[in-house]
Design brief:
This protein has 292 residues and is α/β, with parallel strands linked by helices. It is 38% helix and 15% strand. The chain is built from 10 helices and 10 strands. α1 crosses α10 and α6 packs across α7.
C-alpha cells in the first residue's frame, strides 16, 4: 500500500456525475493516506461523443472539489500509436489473431443460436491461422478485427472489496481488442494505459467488475504487471436504482451553482459506502485522509 498510484478515468461525454466525484474522492483519499499519487486520465476515444467542453467541466469540477491530479492529466486519444504497437505485438507473439468473420455472418449465427435458445459463442475459425495465411486474406481485401486468444483454465483475482473472484475462461469469447477500422476497444486500451501510467491500484465502480477478467487477460498477454483492483458499490437513488438524472441533481456543477460548499459535498460523499466505525459525521479533509 506504500506510495500507490491511482487514477480517475472519466469519459468526456457528459458533465462530472456525482457518482464519478465519489469514485475520484475515494481514489484521492487512498492516495493521500498512503503517500501516493492521484492521477487523471480523460478517456476520449469516443470521438463522436467526446467534447472539449466536458473536459473543461470535469477538470474545473475536480479543481473546485480540491481533487486535482498530481501530474498532468492524460488524454487517452494521444496514446493511439502506443495502442497500435501493443496490438501488433500481441499478433506477433500469438496471443491475439486477426479474425476475418464478417458482421453479417456473425449476426446470422447469433440469430440461429437465439432461435435454438442456445448461448451464442463466436466461432474460432481463424484462431490458428498462421501469420502468412492471415496476410494472404488481407491481400485479398478481406476486412478483419483483432481478437485476444482466451486461454484455457480460469482467471482469478482478489478484489479489495469483493474478495477472491474466479471466472471460468470457457465462459468468455475470444474478445475483440481492435475493431475493423483499426481502433482499439475499451478493455484493451484501459489495460495498456494503466500499465504505462504505472497504476498500482484500480479503484472504480462495480459496474466495471465484469470487465476486470478481460483486462487481466490483456495484462497477461502483453506480460504487464497487474494492478490491485477495488470495485465500489454504486450510489443508488431512493428507489434503489442506480443514480441518474431522474433522481434530481447529479451534475457536480449543479451543487456548486446551488451554493453548496465543496467540503460539505466531499464530507457527504465520503460517507456513502464507508464509515469510520464511529458516530462521527463531520470531518475536515485532513481527518478524512487519516481515517479513510
Amino acid at each position: 500500500m506504500n506510495n500507490p498510484r491511482v487514477r480517475f478515468a472519466p469519459s468526456p461525454t457528459g458533465y462530472l456525475h456525482i457518482g464519478g466525484a465519489r469514485t475520484a474522492l475515494f481514489n484521492w483519499l487512498f492516495a493521500k493516506q498512503n503517500n501516493g499519487k492521484f492521477l487523471l486520465r480523460i478517456e476520449d476515444t469516443d470521438l463522436e461523443r467526446s467534447k472539449n467542453e466536458y473536459i473543461e467541466q470535469i477538470t474545473e469540477a475536480l479543481g473546485w472539489l480540491g481533487l486535482e491530479s498530481d501530474e498532468d492529466f492524460v488524454l487517452q486519444s494521444k496514446n493511439n500509436s502506443r495502442h497500435q504497437e501493443c496490438v501488433d505485438a500481441m499478433i506477433q507473439n500469438g496471443s491475439a489473431y486477426r479474425c476475418f468473420l464478417q458482421k453479417e455472418e456473425l449476426d446470422r449465427l447469433r440469430e440461429e443460436a437465439e432461435k435454438k435458445k442456445e448461448i451464442f459463442r463466436v466461432p474460432q475459425t481463424f484462431r490458428d491461422f498462421s501469420l502468412k495465411q492471415q496476410e494472404e486474406l488481407i491481400s485479398q481485401g478481406v476486412s478483419f478485427t483483432v481478437r485476444l486468444k482466451v486461454p484455457d483454465g480460469e482467471t482469478i483475482f482478489t478484489d479489495l472489496v469483493y474478495g477472491t473472484i474466479t471466472v471460468q475462461n470457457k465462459d468468455l469469447d475470444d474478445f475483440i481488442i481492435a475493431r475493423s477500422d483499426g481502433s482499439p476497444t475499451y478493455n484493451f486500451v484501459v489495460a495498456v494505459d494503466d500499465s504505462d501510467m504505472d497504476i498500482s491500484h484500480v479503484i472504480r465502480g462495480d459496474d466495471h467488475l465484469a470487465n476486470t477478467p478481460k483486462q487481466i487477460l490483456v495484462y497477461k498477454s502483453i506480460r504487464f504487471k497487474e494492478p490491485i483492483f477495488a470495485h465500489l458499490p454504486m450510489i443508488l437513488g431512493s428507489d434503489k436504482k442506480r443514480l441518474s438524472k431522474r433522481h434530481a441533481a447529479t451534475n457536480v456543477q449543479e451543487y456548486k451553482e446551488k451554493g453548496f460548499m465543496a467540503k460539505s459535498l466531499l464530507n457527504y460523499l465520503s460517507l456513502l459506502g464507508w464509515n469510520p466505525d464511529s458516530d462521527k459525521e463531520i470531518f475536515e479533509i485532513k481527518e478524512l485522509i487519516s481515517e479513510f
